[in-house]
Amino acid sequence: MGLGFVFGCLLGLLILKWVLKSVNCWYYERNLGDKRYELPPGDYGWPVIGNMWSFLRAFKSTDPESFISTIVSRFGRAELYKAHMFGNPSVILTTAESCRRVLTDDESFKPGWPSSTVNLIGKKSFVGISDEEHKWLRKLTAAPVNGHEALSIYLKYIEDNVVKALENWADMGQIEFLTELRRLTFRIIMHIFLSSEGEQVMEALEKEYTVLNYGVRAMMINIPGFAYYNSLKARKRLVATLQAVVTERRERRKSTQETVKKDMLDALLDAKDEYGRMLNDEEVIDVLVMYLNAGHESSGHITMWATVLIQTHPEVFKRAKKEQEKIVKNRPPDQKGLTLKEVRQMEYLSKVIDETLRFITFSLTVFREAKKDVNVCGYLIPKGWKVLVWFRSVHYDHETYPEPKKFDPSRWDGFTPKAGNFLPFGGGNRLCPGNDLAKLETSIFLHHFLLNYELEQQNPASPLMYLPHTRPKDNCLGRIRRVC
Predict the structure, then answer these.
(1) Can you name the residues that pair with 464 across neighbouring β-strands?
(2) CA quadruple 68, 73, 74, 79: dihedral, nearest 10
(3) Cβ(150)–Cβ(143) under 8 Å?
(4) What is the spatial distance between Cα 419 and Cα 43, in angstroms, rounded to a whole number?
(5) Is residue 11 included in any domain, yes or no?
(6) 1 domain residue, yes or no
(7) How much is the mean pLDDT over the chain?
(8) Among 23, 122, 215, 248, which is 20 to 30 Å from 471 by CA?
(9) Residue 330: beta bridge partners?
(10) Measured between alpha carbons, how far is 160 from 181 in angstroms, rounded to an integer?
(11) Cα→Cα distances 37→29, 47, 370, 424, Å
(12) What residues are paired with 109 via a beta bridge?
């Protein structure tokens, strides 16, 4: 009787598990009819939470790739997998071809960011607006942060701040290298967007962004103690600070009749669409929230990782430093500071940065939503389903990048990846508008670092955290030392 009871309990648990694991399948496929047989392989996990526990478990472990590798081991190798992510039925894209197709097909796909991301970054920012609004705002805001003319204008400001920062850090002793880099890149993006604001405003904003970002990839649980709850509070404080800035700027421009555009905020306040409509405060603030965040987070992290990887690979350090010394040696004697032409000559350093972008993959995914039923690589993506473009799988594809977990800038010698195989800043019409600025900041920093400094990490084997972005748990604690 005892064994029978145990057997019955085990059988009951197995049946209960099967029922629970089938709930999402029934709910999301019940109206698809025979179309459900065209869906990609995969499953939807548990009711409500879907596959999020396995995702978070993998990305809070030492092996984030285990999330996808487990799916592959269960369902075989495919280009797409169905899942239930961030509260929605979803399809995860894991190959270059499927990612390229979705990112470049604006007729079939639109932004599909989770509600948590939209709530934190802003409904009127690029993550929440329509294609037409995006095209207009992108055209308005991308030119001042990309292109030859814009980069030439900001180069000296970036270089001056890099030189000053390195000098200060060398005198400070032990620092959190990532934290200091984020402050540096935040100062740069603040100069571009809010040039007239003081140190107090900058420090207040930078502090809140640190909290905000922890909730972008977290589960949408608005309860005290959870990352999303804290991030919502941080956003409210960010909005309040930026509202004060926008109000003051509007009043000052009105009272002085200023017409000269000094920074991006001026451009946003003057912007008119083809019908003469101007942006209201909510729209201006959401664009600021988005750009100020994206404009320093990626640059700060990538610069840190490029520095660490160069420092820990002596052969890379030697080759990169030799290139920078050659640039200085060939410089006219009366020239002070870098020129954009010299940055363009940093061919090996550019490969180091590209390899860092691939190796680290700052953004693990972007989100789209199917506007209609779409066939991608032989599988159906139903209308309304979310699509996760999984960059990590693309960048770690061993067929495109042999030994993908090896940091090897030389792999870029004579190598140009095919479309969809290298997506550090996304792709299509929603390619990150600040990609050139980010690479310029990293190039300038590495130029001066390689010539005059070295990094001594306190904990070279510090555990890594992968959410919201890959970083050492100690924020790269260490010292910047001058070299003779």
Answers:
(1) 472
(2) 60
(3) yes
(4) 29
(5) no
(6) no
(7) 90
(8) 122
(9) none
(10) 14
(11) 10, 21, 18, 33
(12) 370
240-261: pLDDT as tens digits: 999 999 999 999 888 876 656 6
Residue 367: what are its φ and ψ, rounded to 5°?
-120, 135
Structure tokens at 277: 């409509």
Helix (H, G, I), strand (E, B) or coil at 48: coil
The alpha carbon of 71 is separated from its chain's Cα centroid by a whole number of angstroms, namely 24
Instruction: Choose the most confident range, by mean pLDDT, from 79-83, 146-150, 222-226.
Output: 79-83
Nearest to 386 by CA among 104, 121, 81, 35: 81
- What SS3 class is residue 290? helix
**Residue-range definition of the domain harbouring residue 119:** 32-482
Give the residue, 147 or 183, on which the prediction is more confident. 183
150 lies in some domain: yes
- Number of domains present in the structure of the chain: 1
What's CA 55's distance to the chain center, in Å?
A: 18
Is a pLDDT exceeding 60 seen at residue 297?
yes
Residue type, 79: E
In a domain, 395, yes or no: yes
Counted residue by residue, the chain has a size of: 484
Say how far apart CA 395 and CA 470 lie, in whole Å: 15
User: Which CATH number belongs to the domain containing residue 456 in this structure?
Assistant: 1.10.630.10
Q: How far is Cα 449 from Cα 162, in angstroms, rounded to an integer?
A: 9
What does 209-273 look like in DSSP terms, one character per residue? HHHHHHTTTS----STTSHHHHHHHHHHHHHHHHHHHHHHHHHHHHHHT--S--SHHHHHHH-B-
Burial class of 117 by CB neighbour count within 10 A (0 to 12, 13 to 18, 19+): buried
Stronger pLDDT, 282 or 217, i.e. the higher one: 282
> Which amino acid is residue 73, in one-letter code?
S
Question: 295 pLDDT band (50/70/90 cuts)?
Answer: confident
Structure tokens that stand for 472 in this block: 């050492």
Higher pLDDT, residue 389 or 30 = 389
Residue of 340, 292, 307 lying closest to 185 (CA atoms): 292
Q: What distance in Å separates the CA atoms of residue 262 and residue 193, rounded to the nearest whole number?
A: 9
462 CB-contact burial (10 Å; exposed 0-12 / middle 13-18 / buried 19+): middle
SS3 79: coil
Asked if residues 72 and 48 have their Cβ atoms less than 8 Å apart, the reply is: no
- For residue 478, report the phi and psi dihedrals to the nearest 5 degrees: 175, -160
Q: Among all chains, which residue has been given the structure tokens 């700060």?
A: 300
Instruction: Decide if pLDDT at 109 tops 60.
Output: yes
pLDDT band at 138 (very low <50, low <70, confident <90, very high): confident
Q: Are 128 and 452 in contact (CB under 8 A)?
A: no
Nearest to 394 by CA among 370, 369, 430, 361: 361
Query: What are the beta bridge partners of residue 367?
Result: 388
